[in-house]
C-alpha cells in the first residue's frame, strides 16, 4: 500500500512532526507499505527527527510567507502553483491514500484533486478555539466557517485525537485515533529528585506565564524544589517569561531550559509533570511523562488532559484556579506514598497507547478505505 503524508515541513521541532516521524517509520518498516512525505517548504533543511531511509521525500518548494495569513494576496498568488505541483506529484506516485497532517494550505484543496484517491485529514488542535468565533462571527468568518465545514465533509476520514472533539464537526466522517507513545523507557523515574518538569512549544497557549505565578506560591513552602521548562519559541515571549521569573526572584528554582533532544532522560530525572495550557487536544508530552512514571498535575483545559489523566494517575485542577493548582501540587510533593502510587498508575495507563496498538487503528482505517 502506498501512503502519501502531506505536511508543510519536517525541520522544526513540533508535535505534528514528531508523530509523523513515528507513523511514517512504523509503516516504512512494514513489508506491504511504501511511504512518501510531501512537503511545501523544507528549504533544503534536514529533518529534525529521524526518518527511515526507506521513506521517499519530495519538497514542492512553494515557500509561503509564514509571517502572513495563508489567505493574504502574497500567499494566494502561490496557490495555483501549489495545486498544480501537488496534483502532478500525486498522479505520478499513484498512492492508495493521501493523509494531510498539518493545517496548512493543502487542507483546503486536497479533497478536490485526484478525486479517486481516498483522502484523510488529521487534526492536531482543539476546535474549541473556534467556539466563540462561531457564535458571533464576522461576515468573513461566517463564509470561512461554511467553507471549512464543506471541505471537511469532502474528506473520506477526519482523524481526531479524542472523543470530546467529535461534537465540533459538522460531518459524520470522524474517527478517533489518539497519538502513540513516542518511546517506552526500560526504567521509570525514582521520584526522588526535587524537580517538577514541563515541556512543549514556548507559546502563550501553554500558559507558562500562569505557571510562573503558581510556582511563586509553591516556592514559599517548597524552596528546595525546582521547576524546569523545556522547549523553545518566540524570543520575545521567552524574554517576557524570563523577566517575570526575575521579577519574582525565582531564578534559582524556575529555569527555562530551552529545547532538548533528551526529553526522556530529563523526565526520568524529574518527579512530577505539570501543565497549565489554555487548551490542548491530545498532548503527546503527557503520554511521554506517564511512560516515565511521572504523576501529572494539570489544568482541566479543553480537551486533552481529561482524556489521559484521572485521579488514579494524576490530578486535574479546575481551569485557571491557580491556588488549587498550587495546593494540589504541594500535597503531592509532601505525600511520598501518593506520589509513588500515582506514578505507578501513570506508567500502567501509558501502555494503552503503545505504538503497535495505535498503529493498528491507522492500518485498519487504511484498509477500510480500500474496501470502500
Q: How many individual domains?
A: 2
Task: Give the overall silhouette.
Answer: globular
Helix-strand pattern, N to C?
EHEEHHEHEHHEEEHEHEHEHEEHHH
Strand percentage lies at 15-25%
First-residue to last-residue Cα separation: 15 Å
Looking at the structure, the CATH topology of the largest domain is: Rossmann fold
The percentage helix is 25-40%
Our Rg estimate from Cα atoms comes to: 21 Å
Strand order of the largest sheet: 3-2-1-4-5-6-7
Q: What is the typical, i.e. mean, pLDDT?
A: 95
Number of strands: 13
Which residue ranges are poorly predicted, with pLDDT under 50 across at least 5 consecutive positions? Answer: none
| Count of separate DSSP helical elements | 13
- What would CATH call the architecture of the largest domain? 3-Layer(aba) Sandwich
The CATH superfamily title of the largest domain? Glycogen Phosphorylase B
Main beta-sheet strand count, sense and barrel state: 7 strands, parallel
Assigned CATH class of the largest domain: Alpha Beta
Pairing-aware structural class of the strands and helices?
Answer: alpha/beta
Amino acid at each position: 500500500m502506498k501512503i502519501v503524508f502531506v505536511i508543510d515541513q519536517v525541520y522544526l521541532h513540533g508535535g505534528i512532526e514528531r508523530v509523523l516521524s513515528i507513523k511514517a517509520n512504523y509503516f516504512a518498516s512494514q513489508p506491504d507499505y511504501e511511504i512518501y512525505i510531501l512537503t511545501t517548504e523544507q528549504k533544503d533543511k534536514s529533518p529534525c527527527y529521524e526518518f527511515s531511509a526507506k521513506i521517499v521525500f519530495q519538497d514542492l518548494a512553494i515557500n509561503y510567507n509564514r509571517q502572513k495569513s495563508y489567505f493574504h494576496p502574497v500567499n494566494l498568488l502561490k496557490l495555483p502553483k501549489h495545486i498544480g505541483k501537488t496534483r502532478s506529484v500525486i498522479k505520478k506516485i499513484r498512492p492508495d491514500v493521501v493523509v494531510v497532517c498539518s493545517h496548512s494550505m493543502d487542507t483546503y484543496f486536497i479533497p478536490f484533486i485526484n478525486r479517486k484517491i481516498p483522502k484523510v485529514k488529521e487534526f492536531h488542535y482543539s476546535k474549541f478555539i473556534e467556539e466563540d468565533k462561531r457564535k458571533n462571527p464576522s461576515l468573513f468568518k461566517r463564509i470561512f466557517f461554511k467553507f471549512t465545514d464543506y471541505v471537511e465533509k469532502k474528506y473520506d476520514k477526519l482523524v481526531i485525537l479524542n472523543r470530546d472533539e467529535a461534537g465540533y464537526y459538522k460531518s459524520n466522517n470522524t474517527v478517533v485515533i489518539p497519538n502513540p507513545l513516542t518511546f517506552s523507557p526500560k526504567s521509570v523515574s525514582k521520584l526522588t529528585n526535587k524537580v517538577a518538569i514541563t515541556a512543549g512549544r514556548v507559546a502563550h497557549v501553554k500558559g507558562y506565564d500562569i505557571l510562573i505565578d503558581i510556582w511563586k506560591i509553591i516556592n514559599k513552602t517548597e524552596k528546595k524544589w525546582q521547576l524546569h521548562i523545556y522547549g523553545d519559541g518566540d524570543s520575545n515571549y521567552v524574554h517576557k517569561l524570563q523577566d517575570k521569573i526575575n521579577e519574582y526572584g525565582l531564578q534559582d528554582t524556575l529555569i527555562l531550559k530551552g529545547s532538548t533532544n533528551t526529553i526522556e532522560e530529563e523526565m526520568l530525572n524529574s518527579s512530577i509533570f505539570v501543565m497549565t495550557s489554555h487548551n490542548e487536544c491530545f498532548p503527546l508530552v503527557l503520554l511521554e511523562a506517564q511512560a516515565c512514571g511521572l504523576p501529572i498535575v494539570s489544568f482541566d483545559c479543553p480537551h486533552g488532559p481529561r482524556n489521559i489523566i484521572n485521579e488514579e494517575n494524576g490530578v486535574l485542577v479546575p481551569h485557571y484556579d491557580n491556588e488549587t493548582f498550587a495546593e494540589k501540587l504541594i500535597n503531592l510533593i509532601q505525600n511520598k506514598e501518593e506520589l509513588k502510587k500515582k506514578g505507578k498508575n501513570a506508567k500502567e495507563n501509558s501502555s494503552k497507547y503503545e505504538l503497535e496498538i495505535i498503529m493498528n487503528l491507522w492500518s485498519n482505517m487504511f484498509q477500510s478505505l480500500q474496501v470502500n
